[in-house]
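Reviewers asked in the last cycle whether our approach scales beyond single polypeptides. To address this, we selected a multi-component target totalling 627 residues and predicted its structure end to end. The input consisted of the following lines:
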Amino acid sequence: MNGSPLKARYRPDPAAASPTPVAETIQVPRRKIHLKSSRFADAGFRYLMLGCALSVLAIVALIVRELVLRSTLSLHAFGLKFFMTQSWDPVNGDFGALAFIYGTLVSSLLALILAVPLSVGVATFTTELCPRRLRGLLSYVVELLAAIPSVIYGLWGIFVLVPILRQYVEPFLAKYFKWTGLFEGPQFGIGMLAAGMILAIMIIPIITSITREVMSAVPTAQREGVLAIGATRWEMIRVGVLRNARTGIMGAIILGLGRALGETIAVTMLIGNRPEIAKSLFAPGYTLASVIANEFSEATGDLYLSALVEIGLALFLITLLVNIVAQLMVWSITRGSAQRATA
Amino acid sequence: MMQSKYWWRSLQDKLVVGLAALATFLVLVPLVAIFGYLIYKGIGSLNWNFLTQIPKPVGETGGGMANAMVGSGLILLIASLIGVPVGIGTGVYLAEFGKKRFGYLIRFTADVLNGVPSIVIGIVAWSLVVVRQGHFSAFAGGVALGIMMVPIISRSTEEMLLMVPQSLREAAWGLGIPQWRTTLSITLRTASSGIITAVMLSFARVAGETAPLLFTALGNQFWNLNVTKPTAALPLQIYTYANSPYDDWYRQAWAGALILIILIVVSMSLVRMVASRGVFKGGN
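The resulting structure, written as structure tokens, was:
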């Protein structure tokens, strides 16, 4: 009878359906066995998934353990002095990370200064101002910018950005802003400025997308309320949106900072790789991540390797701190809105 | 007084709108410049040899990156064997069981892991695999990329599973289907295209990673399919060639970069197409 039109047209009769099967619970023993085995399987499944989740914790613990394990030699040899001296002399076994810390901080801050206004501008434009049709396209474009691998940014930086900086931007800056002391010395193109600019381009997508997320988490009623008392669009954005979302936006910026601090390949290709502390942004520098990238596979001697791993440990701890702070800030905004949405 | 202020307020408004539009335009400039230059340089350098041959010895022109493409595939395969099951499992745990405090701890740790610099992951994979085995290998590279895939996949899997309506699960339980069966055959199945999307996105993310491979997979000038041997990878090869002093290697670096970006953009667009057709089978 299967597949017959009779079956297709069958409608259960509510009056007939309910009373009879109750009496037929002769299946009870079989169902009980079934339940027992399924409870067993349920527990097994649950523990399997729990195991996967625990492995995330295990990975982070493993990262800490391995980094500490492989850097003990250097930790014992230099102590805190490691982060306060500037000499980097593999031949004589004298290592200090100050120049790399300086390079990492300066290039990342430069990137933030360039990227933050642009990112907040783009996020504002896409969430509040642009026509609805453009919205999807713009978010896709920003996503695309995030998908470009670091090595391609570096390649483009070497062959396009650096020549432009050398020929046009750096002479211009040297001519008009030399008095700041930041734009002096020989103009190579390669250097802190190039690294900061490429980093800025690379962190714009992450700051933009999180800022956008945070801004769209602000309830529409806030916007309508401000508009209703006669505000212009800008006043609505400033009072209704930006003020409500500021913690989240701050979090987005700090997350961007975390990305910039740890970014390796593109910076290594553009910063010039010289362990020096120079005030001028034209001068080459070196970062924590790029010294690891450049010297790790060629490092000879246990102390040298250990010093490089310690740099990795420092980088890990810095980004960990930055990310935790940022994550808490973003969560404080978006988590509330998620609950609101499901309620 | 209000009258005199209004023109100022409206001017401010127009100024800000203009600035926001300008910012958007400025962000589009590098994107267009990078893609334009990549296509212009890359297409001129792509040829059949590039796709089928291994690198020529230093100084000879010609040759290609075929071994690097295969090597990248091999490393990604190892990475996904590690990252996909663990990532999806974690996502399932978070979505189905992780409503309590412990779930938040896992979620938080996954987000933190996502922010760990890739070069640090490289050091850890080196320390775990390369030091203990005594040699660089494709496996070590796979471990590094696999670790990076876990948080990306788990968080998006969780997101996808949470979008499956609760009533679907309740219907399954109501029929007496055990929970594990419900999760595997109903919830995961319903969200399957969303989860495939998540996996593809994580591929796109790690496929271009260079830093974690520098001292794990190391690179190789020859064919290699042995997981215990050093292996070439596309991003590594681009990095090496871009830092070389040879014009012909620059040319090949551009061609390699074009291939890499095509792979990434194609997978991203596929994902977007699937996603726009509706995350769930049978609509929602």
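Chain A touches chain B through 89 residues (CB under 8 Å). We regard this as preliminary and will revisit it once experimental data from Aim 1 are available.
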